[in-house]
Design brief:
single chain; alpha+beta; Methylamine Dehydrogenase, Chain H; four-stranded antiparallel β-sheet; 15% helix; WD40_rpt; phosphoprotein; WD40 repeat-containing protein; WD repeat; repeat
């Protein structure tokens, strides 16, 4: 009994724990701001932190915004980059998650009608981008929203997209075929491969798809489904649909030819290129009357020449680049397009104005400078970005001004510069609209590269006269235009942002590596 009472007394006795022996060694602070273990700050500190975040997100007047998309570990995202030529800053400002593998981008400044925003904002100017993916729908995102979760508008039928993933039949058989994708006039039923925004009629967006159709979208149209139905947000239906092609339509472009020389625009004319080896030029108001060109290979890219009215450029899978004048193209058949079987037969190839062997592999991109006449850039699957110079006869401008037909072919097309930018197989090239000598390149390596062409001596020598003719306000103050100046190796390496010096290899090293690779391949074949 006495032992039980002693045990209870011991339980209540805390002296054995020595809880107050080190009380004098405890550290204390006059206020919470001095205590490093208290992370919750006062109102002033929160305001400073928010001000710092706003400063990081602020876009300055001299900043250039570059939009790109990539996929990493099956996660697709849209990245908005900031490039400042004076400060040599190049970083990702913010990114947005995408639901599917991206295929094409198109920037626009027209606020679309959609599930986000009221009717009063439709048509207002802003910074938007249309994204084409492996899904048959087109999403339009607001680039001014940093943490956007949903697009501002969806072009297409989301319910139909969900139904396409369902297999056809009862499911009793082991092999279950997917439901057939039948093209229609309201929306795409396969991956969207290309986009083009009409800069004159700002509410019009053209798209081309693997379902062999070209569609015209009115961005002022309200979506068919309301935002109140979360399970079926719906989408916008197409304004018109064109079925001129019999196979996948790879590229589409509104007529912007001669925009740099003040030519009369043709905002209703649309150009499309397909895997059926045809090019189509037609007025969207009267699509049954159009022009057609038969080509030798699958089309990769289409673009209009800003320095020559009625002229466009097409690049192909075999690396060739060809130029065409719409005034010399034959009329397209007025009847319905031929079937795929008849389209595969050998057709007479339409003669081009000129043909350029640009790349060893497919030429995936062609980009014209809108400031420097004759300067254009190509990119291909051979991992090279090339700068070209096209020179024309002196009397061509005068002939065009008098209404006479200009010279059909340029006097000369010369390669000015060529470089592997460590971007992998190049998918896209674009010259800056604000800086005529800055080139952005995207490729299979998932990296966006910027190449300052002014660091190349050949570029400076070739385009120095034309660059000096530009207004001084359009040129950066630190741009070097001396044709006799030579750039050092360090300057050449620094001209590509995002590419470290360790990744640079000399031509001799590349030749040695290629030679070793050929020898190893020959030895393997002998074995």
């Amino acid at each position: 009994m006495q032992e039980d009472q002693q045990a209870k007394a011991d339980l209540n006795d805390l002296s054995r724990y020595n809880l107050d022996t080190n009380i004098k060694g405890l550290q204390y602070h006059r206020n919470n701001d001095q205590d490093p273990y208290i992370t919750l700050r006062g109102a002033s500190d929160l305001e400073e932190e928010e001000a710092g975040e706003r400063e990081e997100l602020q876009v300055l007047a001299e900043d250039n915004m570059i939009v790109s998309c990539k996929t990493e570990d099956e996660v697709s995202m849209l990245e908005v980059h900031i490039y400042n030529h004076h400060a040599r800053d190049f970083f990702v400002h913010h990114d947005l998650l995408l639901p599917a593998f991206p295929l094409a981008l198109q920037c626009l400044d027209f606020h679309p009608a959609g599930v986000v925003g009221g009717d009063s904002s439709v048509g207002a100017k802003g910074n938007f981008v249309a994204v084409a993916t492996m899904d048959p729908t087109i999403e339009i995102w607001n680039l001014d929203v940093v943490d956007g979760l949903f697009p501002n508008a969806i072009l297409g039928n989301q319910d139909a997209v969900k139904a396409m993933g369902m297999p056809a039949g009862t499911g009793k058989k082991k092999r279950r075929l997917p439901a057939p994708r039948i093209p229609n006039d309201a929306y795409h039923v396969d991956a969207v491969l290309g986009l083009s925004w009409n800069t004159h009629a700002r509410n019009l967006l053209a798209s081309c798809s693997a379902d062999s159709t070209v569609k015209l979208w009115d961005l002022t149209r309200a979506p068919s489904g309301g935002a109140s139905d979360s399970d079926s947000p719906g989408g916008t239906t197409a304004l018109r649909s064109f079925s001129h092609h019999t196979d996948k339509v790879q590229s589409v472009a509104w007529d912007t030819s001669g925009s740099s020389i003040g030519a009369v625009p043709n905002p209703a004319v649309l150009l499309s290129g397909s895997y059926d080896k045809t090019l189509r030029v037609f007025d969207t108001r009267t699509p049954e009357k159009g022009l057609m060109a038969n080509v030798h290979e699958d089309v990769e890219c289409l673009t209009w020449d800003p320095w020559n009215a009625n002229r466009f450029i097409a690049s192909f899978e075999d690396g060739l680049v060809k130029a065409y004048d719409v005034r010399s193209l034959p009329n397209a058949p007025s009847s319905s397009p031929p079937s795929k079987s008849s389209a595969t037969k050998q057709q007479h190839v339409t003669q081009a104005l000129f043909t350029l062997a640009a790349h060893d592999g497919a030429c995936t991109s062609v980009s014209f400078s809108k400031d420097v006449k004759g300067c254009f850039v190509t990119g291909g699957t051979d991992k090279l970005a090339k700068v070209w110079n096209a020179t024309y006869e002196e009397e061509e401008d005068a002939a065009g001004a008098q209404g006479r037909a200009p010279n059909e072919r340029p006097k000369e097309i010369a390669l000015v510069a060529s470089r592997d930018l460590d971007a992998g197989k190049i998918f896209s090239t674009s010259l800056s609209p604000d800086d005529p000598l800055v080139l952005s390149v995207g490729g299979s390596a998932g990296k966006l590269r910027l190449w300052d062409l002014s660091s190349n001596a050949g570029v400076r020598k070739t385009f120095a006269k034309r660059l000096h003719e530009l207004r001084s306000a359009r040129l950066p103050t630190d741009m070097t235009l001396d044709a006799d100046a030579s750039a050092s190796a360090d300057e050449e390496a620094a001209s590509v942002l995002g590419l470290s010096d360790g990744d640079e290899e000399s031509d001799e090293d590349e030749d040695e590596e290629a030679a070793r690779g050929r020898v190893e391949e020959d030895d393997a074949m002998r074995e």
